[in-house]
Design a protein that fits this description.
The protein is an alpha+beta fold and 410 residues long. The chain contains 18 helices and ten strands. Strand 6 (302-304) and strand 7 form a beta hairpin.
Amino acid sequence: MNQTRKYDLYSASFRQQTHQTFAQMRADDPVFQQPGLDGQTPIWFVTGYAEVEQVLLDERHFRRDPASISPELAQKYGGTTDLQLMLNSHMLNRDGADHRRLRSLVGQAFTPKMVQSMRPRIEQIAHDLLDKAAAQGRMELVADYAFPLPITVIAELLGIPLDNQENFRLWSNAFVQPAFTPEAQQEMMLKLQAFGAYMQQLVVERRQQPGDDLLSALIHVQEAGDRLSEMELFSMLALLIVAGHETTVSLIGNATLALLQNPEARNALQADPDLIPNALEELLRYDSPVERTLTRFVAADTELGGRKLQKGDLLIAVLGSANRDESRFTEADRLDIFRRPNPHLAFGKGSHYCLGAPLARLEGEIALRTLFQRFPDLRLGIAVEELTWRNTPLFRALTHLPLTWGMRDE
């Protein structure tokens, strides 16, 4: 196919006009094939709400595991090295019964009842972080609040020591950020190898001294039978560490920025904090933290949005675009914290619906409620034009969000 891209979906300039680009794609090419991240591999990008929903629900035609489709696809796109198997043998890369088996192992830790029991601890973490910020008179929201809050929660849930948060951030970034040059690829590999070594050591220590935590529970399941292999254990741990905080980091940053840019919504929430849960759903829709799904594979020839897709084709569903689809949401580009119903796809849909959605919602609600209660005159510390976004196609996430409050500098 033609190696040029009609739509720029990877550059820094795209990040400044993301929603305008997706609007053009929905209008002209809701299902469109062009080269992906490597500039060579053709990928179908699906941007319309109806088409994205169809992809999420149709496991017969759209799958995550290439091995379930053909040996050729498995060889081309499946992991083969020990490190690849250690990091990628998790439930997001499986379909059908295998996916349900892996999902059930951690599902009990993310039930609404279990998640709600964590509310007091999450509130304490939020206040502790803002106590530090209050003493300084300003904060960088991502580094000082949006990142440490969910990484602390998931670390405590798993029973992981909190003395190496910065390493978690470096490892997670290597996990989700593409590497283009040989130098960047080598650096990424070194970080992922360090991440793998850390997890191996952690599992060894927890086997010797099990505790009342999720990692100990997963190890117990792995030792008790054949439901969880060694590689699946490491991969599930990696997934929980990375996915367990990345989405919430993006959610808190995007939501805070959206409220600062929409003072009517912000004032309404400050006047009535009970509106926050409904507002959070709108904030998830308005600037979705997970912008695109992981790559899916077409399992059988099919038609989608009037386009013919062939078995073996690659496909990415763009959640952030579907959530701004004018045919599904009235005034889709307007932040309406009273919007109901709000059938957004920010956490996906179907069998791969985000297992951690209840926890992300709770963390987002507490983070926003506490932030705007503690600092009612919160404002941006720099011009909006100076904000930058992380170079991670999977997430829509700010690199930084400087904030200030109190007396303005003269």
